[in-house]
Amino acid sequence: MSRVVVDVMLKPEILDPQGKAVHGAFDRLGFDGVASVRQGKRFEIELTGDAGPEAVAEIERAASTLLSNPVIEDYTLHVETEA
Amino acid sequence: MSRVVVDVMLKPEILDPQGKAVHGAFDRLGFDGVASVRQGKRFEIELTGDAGPEAVAEIERAASTLLSNPVIEDYTLHVETEA
Q1: CA A13, A14, A16, A17 torsion: positive or negative?
Q2: How far is CA A21 from CA A25, A51, B77, in A?
């Protein structure tokens, strides 16, 4: 079994109120040195088989249609090899 | 400026209805070969300075108190070097 990780983040030009709220909390709680915070989603997808090119292409298709909204979000995808 | 990424996921023993819903959608939409899906949060934190040991320890403290609920969630933290 292998794992594919898809990270979905708002595009840089899209306002991120969740991230802004977290940044505000950092300031209030005295965590210094933070310039900005962006919050996104992380999907850990366990495959029944190997993460071959075909399986990864399938997940890539899902990432761009089901897991992210391509109008406002970018995704990155990587295969994770477990230690 | 450097970036620290904090990934927050539900602990393995905690039920993940969001992930389950995504997994169900995979099945319905014909994406095969998926054994399970877990959904979590990703925080991209830009620091004003370098990601030295002190700054990272500070973010680590924030990750365990502000960004995650240690009762039900685990977090991982890594410093990202931009290409």
Answers
A1: positive
A2: 6, 37, 20
CB contact under 8 A, A35 and B59: no
A11: its two tokens: 């595009």
Instruction: List Cβ neighbours of A63 (8 Å cut-off, separation of 6 or more).
Output: A6, A8, A43, A75, A77
Summarize pLDDT for A44-67 with one digit per residue, the tens.
Answer: 999 999 999 999 999 999 999 999
Question: What CATH code is assigned to A2-80?
Answer: 3.30.1280.10
**Which of B22, B38, B66 has the CB atom closest to A29's CB atom?**
B66
Interface check for A62 against chain B (CB to CB < 8 A): the answer is yes
If you measure CA to CA, which chain B residue comes closest to A67?
B22
